[in-house]
Write a structure and sequence with these properties.
This protein is mostly beta strands. The chain has one domain. The protein contains one helix and six strands, in the order ββββββα. The strands form three sheets. A two-stranded antiparallel sheet has the order 1-4. A two-stranded antiparallel sheet has the order 2-3. Strands 5-6 form a two-stranded antiparallel sheet. Strand 2 and strand 3 form a beta hairpin. The longest helix is centred in the last third of the chain and has 4 residues.
Length: about 70
């Protein structure tokens, strides 16, 4: 199956344990959708390396309102 992604959505969740430095999935009970960006536009942002893999660093100001794609 050929996967074609249209959007990237930024979602913030709670439940991160700072002492253990990991997400405790049992403590996750809230989420906030910050916005979205078209998948093809992500490559226009800087690529940064984190601990596990590379990510594009998209500023929150560059995200569009999620209501544009779910209404």
């Amino acid at each position: 199956m050929d996967k074609k992604f249209e959007y990237v959505v930024q979602i913030f969740i709670n439940g991160y344990d700072r002492k253990a430095r990991k997400l405790n999935i049992d403590n996750v009970n809230k989420a906030f959708i910050a916005g979205y960006i078209k998948f093809d536009s992500v490559k226009n942002f800087p690529l940064v390396q984190n601990i596990y893999h590379s990510n594009y660093k998209v500023s929150l100001n560059a995200l569009d309102d999620i209501k544009e794609i779910i209404d």
